[in-house]
Structure to design on (380 residues):
C-alpha cells in the first residue's frame, strides 16, 4: 500500500495562515479553526480509522471542509440571486451576503423602458424635429437633414410622423361637422344620437373608442389618404407633394435610450454581477454546519477513492487484494448529489412564492374555521 508517511496520523492540528487550506477564506471566522479539526477527525473515523489506514493527511480533510463551506454558501446565494434578481436589477452593487434585495427598482426600470417604446412615458426625452418638404420631391433623408445638423450626427429613431389629415375621430365626435356628408355618416356608421352636437347619452368609453376605430379603419380601406413609408430614417411621402410645407416628427436619439443604471458598472444588471460574497462562517447555524460536515465527508470519500484508484489491486503473499477506490468515488459522488438536492428542496420550500401560498392556505383555513363557529344566541 502507500508509504506510511502519507497515512493519516490520527491528529488534526490546524494553523490558520499557514496555507493548510487552499484559499484561507474562513480561517479567521468564528469557530472555524476548531470545527475544521473536529470535522477532520470525524471524517477519518467515518472512513474506518484507526482500524483501516487512511491514505489522506489532515490538510486533505481541511481542504474538503473549506470546499464544503464554499459549496453551501454558493447554493444558498444562487437561490437568493434567483429570488432577488428582478428587484436587485439597477440597484447599486452592495454586499448582499445575507440581505435580500428590496424594492421595485427592477420593475420600475422595466416599465420605464416599455413606456419609452410605447410613447407613454419612460425616462428618455422624446424630441421634435421638422424638415422642409418641397413640391414634387417624395424622398427625404431625415438623418442627413435633421440628425446631422441638430443632433451632431447622432443616430435618430423616428417614432411619429405628422403627415396625416384631420383624424376621422373628429367626425365621430360631431357627425354634423361633415357638412353635406353628415347624413351619409349618420346612416353608414350608425352615429345617431352619438355626437356632442346631439343628445348627451351616458355611454361607456369603450363604445366611443370602438366607433372611432370603425371610422378610422373605414378611411384606411376606402379612401386614399396622405401616407408615408419610413425605412432607415428615410421617408417617402404619398401622394407626391404638390406644395411646399413643413413636416414635423418626433424622435429619440438612440444613444440616449436606456442610459439608466442598467448595464452600469456600479449597478446590478445580470445574474453574474450581484455582489453576493462568501458567507461568514460564524453566521451559519447548526443545520448548516451539519450539512457542511456531511458534504466534507462525501468529498473525502471521493478524494480517498482517487488516491486508492491508482491501483486496482495490491499483490500479497496470499493473493491479490482488491482496492475499493471506484466504490468510494461513486459513493462520495452519490452523497454529494443527494445533499445538494435536499438543500435545494429546502430552499425552494422557503421561496417567496411558496411562503405566500402557505400564507394564503393558512388564511383560507382560518376563514373556514371562523365560519363554522356558531353564533351566540341572544336571549331576551
Amino acid at each position: 500500500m502507500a508509504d506510511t508517511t502519507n497515512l493519516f496520523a490520527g491528529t488534526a492540528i490546524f494553523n490558520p495562515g499557514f496555507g493548510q487550506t487552499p484559499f484561507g477564506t474562513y480561517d479567521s471566522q468564528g469557530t472555524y479553526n476548531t470545527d475544521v479539526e473536529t470535522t477532520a477527525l470525524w471524517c477519518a473515523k467515518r472512513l474506518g480509522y484507526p482500524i483501516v489506514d487512511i491514505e489522506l493527511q489532515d490538510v486533505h480533510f481541511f481542504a474538503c471542509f473549506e470546499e464544503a463551506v464554499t459549496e453551501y454558501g454558493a447554493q444558498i446565494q444562487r437561490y437568493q440571486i434567483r429570488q432577488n434578481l428582478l428587484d436587485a436589477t439597477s440597484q447599486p452593487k452592495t454586499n448582499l451576503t445575507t440581505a435580500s434585495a428590496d424594492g421595485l427598482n427592477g420593475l420600475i426600470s422595466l416599465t420605464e423602458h416599455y413606456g419609452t417604446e410605447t410613447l407613454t412615458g419612460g425616462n428618455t426625452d422624446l424630441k421634435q424635429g421638422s424638415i422642409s418638404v418641397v413640391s414634387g420631391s417624395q424622398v427625404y433623408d431625415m438623418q442627413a437633414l435633421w440628425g446631422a445638423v441638430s443632433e451632431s450626427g447622432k443616430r435618430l429613431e423616428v417614432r411619429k410622423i405628422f403627415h396625416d389629415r384631420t383624424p376621422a375621430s373628429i367626425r365621430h365626435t360631431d357627425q354634423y361637422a361633415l357638412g353635406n356628408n353628415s347624413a351619409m355618416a349618420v346612416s353608414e356608421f350608425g352615429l345617431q344620437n352619438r355626437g356632442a352636437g346631439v343628445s348627451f347619452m351616458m355611454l361607456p368609453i369603450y363604445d366611443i373608442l370602438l366607433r372611432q376605430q370603425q371610422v378610422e379603419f373605414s378611411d384606411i380601406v376606402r379612401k386614399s389618404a396622405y401616407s408615408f413609408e419610413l425605412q432607415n430614417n428615410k421617408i417617402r411621402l404619398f401622394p407626391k407633394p404638390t406644395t411646399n410645407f413643413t413636416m414635423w416628427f418626433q424622435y429619440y436619439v438612440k444613444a440616449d435610450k436606456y442610459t439608466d443604471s442598467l448595464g452600469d458598472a456600479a449597478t446590478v444588471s445580470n445574474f453574474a454581477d450581484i455582489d453576493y460574497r462568501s458567507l461568514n462562517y460564524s453566521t451559519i447555524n447548526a443545520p448548516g454546519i451539519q450539512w457542511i460536515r456531511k458534504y466534507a465527508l462525501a468529498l473525502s470519500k471521493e478524494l480517498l477513492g482517487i488516491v486508492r484508484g491508482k491501483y486496482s489491486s495490491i499483490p500479497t503473499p496470499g493473493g491479490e487484494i482488491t482496492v475499493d477506490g471506484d466504490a468510494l468515488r461513486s459513493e462520495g459522488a452519490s452523497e454529494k448529489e443527494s445533499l445538494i438536492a435536499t438543500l435545494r428542496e429546502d430552499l425552494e420550500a422557503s421561496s417567496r412564492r411558496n411562503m405566500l401560498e402557505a400564507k394564503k392556505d393558512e388564511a383560507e383555513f382560518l376563514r373556514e374555521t371562523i365560519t363554522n363557529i356558531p353564533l351566540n344566541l341572544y336571549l331576551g
In short: The chain has two domains: 4-99+274-371, 121-256. The beta strands are 127-133, 139-141, 156-162, 227-231, 234-238, 245-253, 313-316, 319-322. The first strand starts at residue 127 and ends at 133.
